[in-house]
Design goal:
The chain has 16 helices and 17 strands. With 395 residues, the protein is α/β, with parallel strands linked by helices. Bound molecules: 1,3-dihydroxyacetonephosphate and iron/sulfur cluster. The site of 1,3-dihydroxyacetonephosphate has 12 residues, from helix 4. The site of iron/sulfur cluster has 13 residues, from loops.
Amino acid sequence: MNGILVDDAEAVAGLPAIETAPIEGQACLLENYLSQPDHTMDARIAAARAKLGKEAVVLGHHYQRDEVIQFADFTGDSYKLSKIAAETDARYILFCGVHFMAESADVLAKPWQQVILPDLNAGCSMADMAEIGQVEDCWDALGASLGTDGIVPLTYMNSAADIKAFCGERGGLVCTSSNARGAFEWAFARGNKILFLPDQHLGRNTAFSMGIPLNEMVVWDPYMINGGVAPDRLKAAKVILWKGHCSVHQRFLPEHVDRVRRDEPGMQVIVHPECRWEVCQKADALGSTERLIELIEKSPEGSSFAVGTEIHLVNRLAARFAPLGKRVITLDDSGCLCTTMYRISPAHLAWALESLVAGKVVNQIKVSEQTKHWAKVALDRMLEVPTAHAIQRPI
Ligand code: 13P
Ligand code: SF4
């Protein structure tokens, strides 16, 4: 047999002992599943879930498609799902989201739990925009020009575990879009500058909402010498923003807000803070996926919203709230799709669950012990920073 046998004594009651499949086989192992239509997976997923019972928990990020989210035990934004991952006692955590979320769950999980990402190709282009070598080079360059004593490194959840560990080891932390402001306050209580990784937009929007002017922020380009920032600007900056972005949210433009204002009087524009500063400035409110949902939930009947975030969530909200007399449309007509979130299909979920039933853990996400230690420090600090309500902007 291929793979490592895991503790027979702890095997799921009535199920075979579990072995861990090597990563090499995702494509060929999946072949039989991917050739079947999506809907044929529903009964198989339900049957496998029933067999696994409480041994498995399925977490679904709000951007997952309906066919997958219907099987989630818990849905949420990155903050909520990482809290659930830290609290659940299920042996197997199937994370229907993207790689950095599954990594964080593994860091926060208990040693006997295993985290599974149903498709290993579900990554995040923003997280890929900061590599540990580049971040270390940046830190060395900051040290040479300013000294790093007063600089607190703060990374968005959407980053690899080694970047989280880098921040934890240097007195910094992780944040999500739902507690970014609290994390900035935490950092400014301990230093006078923040290095914010890897999303320049979330960093800029958060700092600006705290009263930091744009001219006190600089953008560090890892492909340029000294980040492409002049020494005097670096010295004066309060926030050093990494040059990263979300390719999905960056597609929302100020013109889209203008069009809604023109064509849909009375409609509120609510956007994720990964959108550009120019878009956020024109919006009525900004918030994480969970907060955007909450805004619509709490609004009175007859309200209408143009939402600047991923299209699967927007479509789901439109369907859910239409019968309640609330209208929800996407801010951009063409609809912005996160193609990596979309990688997780019912076939992948069925394969991961049926493999567990057959005694095999496939697509386990495992962060090395060395990285885990400091990444956990940074994530634990994040979990201590409370989330906030959506930022309401006066218009
Ligand atoms: P949330 O934390 O708001 O769910 O955002 C995660 C994400 O990746 C948005 O692009
Ligand atoms: Fe990454 Fe953007 Fe997709 Fe979120 S929406 S997972 S930031 S690519």
